[in-house]
Amino acid sequence: xxxxxxxxxxxxxxxxxxxxxxxxxxxxxxxxxxxxxxxxxxxxxxxxxxxxxxxxxxxxxxxxxxxxxxxxxxxxxxxxxxxxxxxxxxxxxxxxxxxxxxxxxxxxxxxxxxxxxxxxxxxxxxxxxxxxxxxxxxx
Length: 139
Fold this sequence. Notes:
Strand order of the largest sheet: 2-1-4-3
Order of helices and strands: HEEHHEEH
Strand content: 15-25%
Structural class: alpha+beta
Shape: globular
Distance between the termini: 31 Å
């Protein structure tokens, strides 16, 4: 058994490129969004609240990104009951809401993105545009 493991980290340049792509796509579809990009541990690298985006969506977008990083999977698939309990236990750090995606390269987790202020489908659409812009694995 090895006592070390290699990790992959999203750079701040990659986070800014993803953020710019998310903003551009949100503008294209006419839905102002809140966007959080976190590293694999859930710490924020970059974020924005676009003009007109819902204030409370800052909190949910961050929770979506942190949840996607934590579970290494898209948000929105866990049950409402579990999501609610996990949200309470994590003081709002975990959510069942759709709009969070892991950022992976060649299957390896490098971070996550959380988008909020539109419908779940719109949030995922903006997040996927960000992943495509940086060459991350499609989710």
